[in-house]
Hints:
By secondary structure, the chain is α/β, with parallel strands linked by helices. It is 38% helix and 22% strand. Helix 1 links the parallel strand 1 and strand 2 (36-42).
Amino acid sequence: MKILLASSEVFPFSKTGGLADMVAALARALADAGHEARVVTPLYRGIREKFPAIKRVDWQFHLPMGDHYADGGLWELDVASGLKIYFVEQPDYFNRAGIYQENNCSYPDNDERYIFLSKCVVHLARYLTWKPEVVHVHDWQVGLVPALILQQKNEGWGNPTPTCLTIHNLAYQGVFPEEAFALTNLPPSFFNPEGAEFFGLLNCLKAGIAYTDTITTVSPRYAREITTEEFGCGLDGVLRRRAQNLTGILNGVDYSEWNTTKNPHLFKPYSVSRLAGKNAGKAELQKLLGLPVNKSTPLFGTISRLAEQKGVDIQLGALAEMLNADMQFCLLGSGAPEFENGYRELAKRFPDKVAVRFGYDEKLAHRIEAGCDFFLMPSRFEPCGLNQMYSLRYGTIPIVRATGGLDDSVADFFEVRHQATGIKFYEYSARALAKAIRKALAIYQEPKLISQYRQAGMKADYSWEASVAKYLNVYEKLLEKQ
Ligand code: ADP
């Protein structure tokens, strides 16, 4: 099958979160399964320098953006057999210091930047000699693609290529003033409450939900949750209308990146049968972070965007309560300054127990996953979440709130007894999280129990094989409908 994917970030070229990991891994898994996957993404600053094998393609975009035209170029990189990445070059839009923002301030022209990207995707789908059978778009940044493709049919360009939209996080919808709709050059009929309009504003994700042929999201539980008012972020009604075409597929993990046996980021390799390297990694991590090197003190870790979604408030509350116990905590994160300050305060209050690092650091992320005993993910909501699955493979017991993909990927003692892989809590409160941490401290005193959890977690398989088969199933159904 020929699949054209589109995403505003793709690992290792650009990344702010799980979206980049997922799109890269899905595309690779499709290619590994014998299909042809090509991914369209922006050529952000620095990509060409970091990946000198990228080649310019003889291609020129000249696309209407409201009452003017924008030009762009195209670059490509063959990553593996059956897998190509297309980079859209438009220096005014994409050659910037950040991807979506600078100094915690979103770029004011994000509407224009990603409407242009969406138009480039549609242009490629139509004019490439390699004809995609499915166009698979991810999140709001390319949410207008299905509407733009549909419009081609209305203009008499024949049957449109079937589209699939994956929602990675319903909380980010790409909402802009009504005037931004003019940049799409779509007829006004698309700007209505059944389509791209959301209370008088342009909503790019809603347009995707309304006009795509099929919708997926990144875990079965999140697929159910987003049709409810509590988790629907205002779009639950539209999603309920499209429930027949909504599938939840758990993201897989790219174990060629996230593994403990062949990983250049780790101090020492280890595996389920040889855990010495994990103990060594813990000591090295404690040293690196300036924490007392102590094997018997349980080390908790978090790697996260510091956003409200991630449960920062209850985490700060629970840690303040629990840090008098014999435990350590480390954080790698970046985000809202007030949240960063909260962790800074905690580190000041417990200097020999808490280490915090702000910024983005891939190497440290691997080292924290490997060196910690427990991984904390107290999200308010979590579409899929990847870190808890990385933790499982790294023998680091995840403590998660039972929501979305966290609930789908971690098994608690009360669900499966001796096959438990982590600790779940339910109520969104500092008290409930503190109780879960207390449970972890108790488990930590029982080496046999710890080993049982670790064994079950490290053996759990969240590779892409199962998930890619489910995506193929979705694509095949689309083609049958043709
Ligand atoms: P989300 O996409 O909501 O941010 P996920 O758990 O799905 O959450 O994915 C987060 C990804 O981003 C993981 O690969 C995680 O390791 C990575 N990550 C998040 N913050 C940082 C950071 N400060 N440094 C390095 N990696 C990070």
